[in-house]
Amino acid sequence: MQSYKPTKYALLSLLFTAALSLQYNVYAEDEKGFLETNHHHNTLISTVPANGDQNPYAIIVAPVSAGSVQKGDVLIDNFNNATNLQGTGTTIVDYNPVTKKLSLFAKIPKDLAGCPGGVGLTTAMTMLKSGWVIAGSTPSTDGTTATKGNGCLIVLDANGKVANTIAGNNINDPWGNMAVIDNGASATLFVSNTGFGVGAPDPNWTIVNKATVLRIELSIPAGKPPAVKSQTVIADGLSERAAKDVFIIGPTGLALGKDNTLYVSDAINNRVIAIDDAATRKTSVGTGREVTKDRLLHRPLAMILAPNGNLLVTNGKNGQVVEINPQTGKQLYAQWVDTDKAQTPPGNGDLFGLALTPDNTGFYYVEDDMNTVVLAQ
């Protein structure tokens, strides 16, 4: 009988599988986490609409049924157009978990009046209880920051029609996934801005410490679009820079704790920071209070609050989601959710948006390399 001799590829595959297992378990300390209950990852559907837009960024779950959207639907926006130029995506798609079908929710005019530079939809998106959808735009004409505009927040009705835009001196490339306080007739948005002082990519990857976190107070009159009541910069001096591969790197994930603390992923400095008294403070906290840094974090991006009060953070430089206790700063797990070996390390640059399922037992995320939405449960 001929003896079995593993190929080089097989050995590498075995070693990688072992590494994944070790990476997941070595940090499974005494404290148990939410990720420990999620082991199955099911690809649901392609996020590419008829016009070919790609690179899914934001992902949110509809809190209500309104217009063309059903409660529990998953809305996903696209940052790139069909030719894969960044900052040029104009579509939001709607995945219905019951019918398992994808439909087009909105196709926004590329040169939208009131949105400086045009439209390139980012991870900054939310749907309010009143049915209004608000999406951020960080636009470009050639796919790089050399031609980027200041962008805006776009207000759409529940049928995907543009109703208004929010722009001005405090808004420059709204980038990170929004945290929201929604009271129905009023709402508070928290969004990061990563465009201040950022120009074209340069060989030195120059870092600019001008990114901000902005709090926007909205009034929502019955039957009328949300109107801005006030704007307050609650953090500034955060790191940002242009990037050829991912357009801009800067503060991306925002998650609001029950104690009124806003947590922000500071991607360039590989850490998570906290902004205390986020909903009420009248001044900027500067660069915030450091919660945790390095270890399992590898360019932290999207971030949400898990049902147990911990933070879930996607890594931009590998295919992991990290769970963090925000009170202690302890990093509990790094679960590989994207092991695509086409990237180095696996899943590098694939993960952006995160959203909890309505029953709080799992989470949705997007894989931008495959243009798909995935359910972890």
Describe the overall structure.
This protein is mainly beta and 377 residues long. It has one domain: 6 Propeller (Neuraminidase), CATH 2.120.10. It has one helix and 25 strands. The chain has one helix at 8-25, and strands spanning 41-46, 54-61, 74-80, 91-96, 101-107, 121-127, 133-137, 152-156, 162-166, 179-182, 186-193, 208-219, 227-243, 247-249, 254-256, 262-266, 271-275, 289-293, 300-305, 311-315, 320-324, 331-336, 351-356, 363-367, 372-376. The strands form six sheets. It has a five-stranded antiparallel beta sheet with strand order 10-11-12-13-14, with no helix packed on it. Strand 10 (179-182) and strand 11 form a beta hairpin.
What descriptors fit this protein?
377 residues; mainly beta; Neuraminidase; 5-stranded antiparallel sheet; 4-stranded antiparallel sheet; 1 helix; 5% helix; globular; disordered N terminus
SSE layout:
Elements: H1 8-25, E1 41-46, E2 54-61, E3 74-80, E4 91-96, E5 101-107, E6 121-127, E7 133-137, E8 152-156, E9 162-166, E10 179-182, E11 186-193, E12 208-219, E13 227-243, E14 247-249, E15 254-256, E16 262-266, E17 271-275, E18 289-293, E19 300-305, E20 311-315, E21 320-324, E22 331-336, E23 351-356, E24 363-367, E25 372-376
Antiparallel strand pairs: 1-25, 2-3, 3-4, 4-5, 6-7, 7-8, 8-9, 10-11, 11-12, 12-13, 13-14, 15-16, 16-17, 17-18, 19-20, 20-21, 21-22, 23-24, 24-25
